[in-house]
Write a structure and sequence with these properties.
The protein is α/β, with parallel strands linked by helices. 38% of the residues lie in helices and 16% in strands.
């Protein structure tokens, strides 16, 4: 082994987004790329003698001719089959050892080990140093498991390891990790053992000082501890940042928290609304949303100058075929700035997976379809075809050219131009292009809302 150990970390993606030598990354969908923060944290956890290279398949193709000593892949469920193909090729054709990590490998370690020499179960910070030391000593074990780590002293990642121009907001960070809620569909909370952890506020502020004006907090719920969030936001105000984050609907329930978030520069919040149905919220244990007046909450957030990205799911047990038109009407009337509509997906490791599996309702275990855009289970009150076409109908309507143009106009009125151009506008345009290029607009014609069908 050389003095410097070379480690190649690969993040695989789906075929239509995969960059190849013949097909460079598509700039029209640049806004949909995340900034690779988890991979950067893996690199930051490496011993000093490890030289890490990161490949995001959205941006560049896998280098099978690499001289790396060790290959790593981190992936979610829908990328698992392709990740396994990459791993198998490195092991069988190139004779290189492979370690796998991320959400899917954590929840399905016995499956993943069939394609790897070792599995990182849980967060990387505690596992990675032990894995590297054992690899160097020739004693790499098949499984390494870590409990959620203490975030005090979290290393600041080396952002030069990624091609920053390939991402809309390359400067991302975390002030907290995990979630204490127990929503049945959520793999994020399960991955963190339903624990919410925070970094020392002053450590977050020092990291923010090193970043550009536009920042993305990649927290699962930045306001999970409201006292922490208020202290953080108050100390952020002098930095004059403009930022986006994920947050619960609780952002609208606390006037002081909302005021401080806006004053600190929050200009966009991704919020899980999930469903308009109180029955569905109860079934999925999304208790924080129950009884909330969504329109009033969105109006309050908008008045603070913050755009709203609303996440909704279709296929919950309380959903009937009229859910699609009801949700679209709500999105228009509430003036939602972006809508991420998804099909309910029973991801491994979640209570939802266990429940649907026990009921015999999961009919497709092709992990490639666990991408929130395919139906893999039998819905209770509609056919799988209706669920699939209904999703496409909502996406095609919400991201039509005229709807996108209206939201761009509103964004320029709601926010200063710089913030709008760094968030809402490119995201709307990217979704329009993606859905148009992947046939969603055409597929949406296969659904006729029940109310219109009866006229």
């Amino acid at each position: 082994m050389r003095d410097k150990l070379k480690f190649l970390l690969i993040v695989p993606t789906v075929p239509d987004l995969r960059a190849t030598h013949e097909r460079p990354p598509n700039r029209k969908t640049r806004a949909l790329r995340f900034s690779m923060l988890p991979s950067l944290y893996v690199a930051a956890a490496m011993p000093p003698y490890v030289e890490t290279r990161i490949i995001d398949e959205d941006v560049e193709p896998v280098d099978f001719d690499t001289d790396a000593d060790l290959i790593g892949l981190s992936f979610m469920t829908f990328c698992a089959p392709w990740a396994y193909e990459i791993a198998d090729r490195f092991r069988k054709e190139k004779g290189k050892p492979v370690i796998l990590g991320g959400y899917h490998a954590t929840f399905m370690p016995e499956e993943a080990i069939q394609h790897a020499d070792s599995i990182c179960i849980g967060e990387a910070e505690n596992n990675v140093p032990r894995m590297i030391e054992d690899f160097v000593a020739g004693k790499l074990k098949p499984f390494y498991k870590s409990e959620p780590i203490d975030l005090k002293g979290l290393p600041i990642p080396n952002r030069s390891l990624i091609r920053q121009s390939a991402y809309l907001v390359p400067d991302s960070l975390q002030a907290s990790r995990g979630c204490c809620f127990r929503c049945t569909f959520c793999s994020v909370a399960a991955f963190s053992n339903y624990r919410y952890r925070i970094r020392p506020v002053d450590e977050v502020i020092e990291e923010l000082k090193q970043l550009g004006r536009h920042v993305a907090f990649m927290d699962d719920n930045l306001i999970g501890d409201s006292s922490f969030a208020k202290e953080l936001f108050a100390k952020m105000i002098p930095l004059k940042k403009r930022w986006a984050t994920q947050a619960s609907i609780g952002l609208a329930n606390d006037d002081e928290l909302l005021r401080l978030a806006a004053a600190a520069g929050c200009r966009m919040a991704f919020i899980g609304f999930e469903s308009l149905s109180q029955e569905n919220l109860k079934l999925t244990r999304k208790h924080i949303n129950r009884g909330v007046d969504y329109r009033r909450a969105i109006e309050k957030i908008h008045r603070a100058g913050i755009a709203v990205i609303a996440a909704v799911m279709f296929g919950l047990d309380g959903d009937t075929p009229d859910v699609f038109e009801q949700t679209l009407d709500f999105a228009y009337q509430a003036r939602i700035d972006l809508l991420t509509a998804a099909i309910l997906t029973p991801l491994p490791g979640t209570q939802l997976f266990a429940e649907l599996d026990a009921e015999g309702r999961i009919f497709d275990r092709d992990w490639r379809k666990y991408d929130f855009a395919h139906v893999v289970f039998q819905p209770k009150q509609m056919s799988p075809e209706t669920l699939q076409n209904g999703l496409h109908w909502v996406q095609s309507r919400f991201y039509s050219r005229s709807s996108v143009a209206l939201r761009i106009w509103r964004a320029l009125r709601l926010q200063e131009p710089g913030a709008a151009l760094a968030g809402i506008i490119p995201l709307n345009l990217s979704y329009h292009h993606r859905f148009k290029s992947t046939g969603v607009f055409e597929a949406g014609t296969g659904f006729v809302p029940p109310r219109k069908n009866s006229i």
